[in-house]
Amino acid sequence: MAIADPSPETRFPADPPRDLGLVFLIGMPRSGTTWITWLLTHHPQVVTFRHSGIFFCFEHLSKWWARDIKYTAGGERSDGYATSSSAAALRQEDLHEALRSIGAHVFRRLASDSPGTRVVVDQTPEHISLIPFVRQVFPEARFLHVVRDPRAVYSSIRRAAEAWALPGSFPRSPIQIARRWRRLVSGARELRDSAGDHYELHYEAIHSDPEGELRRLHEWIGLDTDPELVHASVEASRIDKLRANAVAPSGFFRRGSAAGWRDELSASEIRVIEHEAGEEMQRWGYELVFPDRHEKPLRTRSYDRLAGYVRRRGGRVMRFVDGTLARATRALDLMRSE
Questions:
Q1: What is the pTM of this model?
Q2: Is the pLDDT of residue 18 over 90?
Q3: Residue 261 near residue 149, CB atoms below 8 Å
Q4: What is d(CA 144, CA 16) in angstroms, rounded to the nearest whole number?
Q5: Per DSSP, what are the bridge partners of residue 146?
Q6: Which has more pLDDT, 313 or 103?
Q7: DSSP letter (8 states) at residue 188
Q8: 84-102: b (≥16 Cβ within 10 Å) or e
């Protein structure tokens, strides 16, 4: 029986409506992206999609597409199985078109639930690591990059790990967090060379002038805006109101301070963060407390030695455990066969 053509384009149109914009809100986690999302949510022409992670799902499909598979053809073959890549049956551009169809369908459905929607904002901060992939699937997409001082990011992540986050959700070391911040924001620097498809928003700037920054953000997105709407959005998104309305776990919204890290971090924590990310921090306009970073802090040297030891010993331990389990499994199989 022939396989029927499902004609997916009839159910999953490849292109969103011409008047529907798509903005990916990205940044280092705990950089204030949730607050920015709430500011935008109050605009009647915006639908927000929080932590969709849709491109991480797409990335799994992309990895599947790239791996080798084994198959058999009709009739007898002297070599048994043949090996090929999924790319032999599906071109990369066809894969991207299929992913685009699924994504566009989801965004269209979200927009259809709110008449008058002109823009869908996908707030998945971690998509910052997949910018080239997102552009391949949605070349017309725009990026709203929220940047925050890594010292404040670390302070917020530490409190989240203590208050509401699941164990293992966030790294606890300031060294890990500073290195991740440096890697993510340096990778996003390519957005600065983009022609109008990105907006760089510093958390500290919108914290000091929320109405002015929100108005400029509305204009960049292409939304109708006026002072009354901007003021109402800012008032409705005040941290104390968000905290009182329980729209997130207890402790998720903290003080909303731009420089609270100065009172919350020790000199040792500040020093190691600046040692790891100082050059990148200065590129983004952040002043250093300890500008002389030539000598690696003792805390960083100890961390690197311990991490190297764990990697070496961990590999040996895992090989030992795997071997022991394999031997035990074979012994059980022999006992059952007897």
A1: 0.77
A2: no
A3: yes
A4: 19
A5: 27, 201
A6: 103
A7: G
A8: eeeeeeeeeeebbebbbbb
